[in-house]
Amino acid sequence: MSIKSTVTMMKSCLLLSIIAPAMCCATTDTRLGIHHGKRVTHTQFPYFVGLREKISGLYRCGGTLISKDTVLTAAHCVYDFSPTLIANIGMDRRRPLSAMESIEVKKAIIPAKYGIIDGTYDIALLKLKHAVTATHTYMKLKEWDVANNADVYSIGFGLTSEGGYSSYYLLGANFKIIDWYEHCSGHNYPKNYPPTNFDPHYHLCTQSYPDHGDSGGPVMNFHDGQFYQVGIVSISLLRGGQQTRVSAYYDWINAHK
Prior knowledge:
Strand content: 25-35%
CATH superfamily of the largest domain: Trypsin-like serine proteases
Low-confidence stretches: 1-33
Radius of gyration: 16 Å
């Protein structure tokens, strides 16, 4: 799913599918993404949600189940909401489709300040037509911040190689939070590069770049024996990934879920 704007397409043409448990396989390769990931299944991540268009079957984005009838994803995945979307709960294979349950999306809730052009406030909640019955395991959200060099992990159906094809299987891989000023502020980018609009209060700067198909998926941190979502895959920049910081929207999420 690419953002429908020239500027954001320039930033997101690589869209990040980031990444794998904090305890294994950390890497220093700043270009490592899900296309170097390993296959995972719904038994490991029952709260992963794959969003598909109902009529065409086109895969749009990832997301996470955060309550019995609410999915957390990126606003750029759903801001137009023109085709009817199906939320595939526990989706772990794209072709042929494999999911624990498929439910139509009733409505999308997007911040009024969402910027289609600059990608700010890139967060959305999707309300489902009925409650999920296949699982009662929901993605836990981290209301506190993660520090630079923290290990993070993500899962998605993004490209399996640069310029390659989207994965048929759900993949995950490791990466890290990196210094935002050096890698995501844009101060050392070419002069003709569009403004990054990076705000450290609302964004995380990550080591990996996203790929098509990974948008809206989780950036997770392993803490006290379980995964917590700390970010949402959002926009690719020249030297890092600009991801939506979940802690900045913790109150907004709880008010609308």
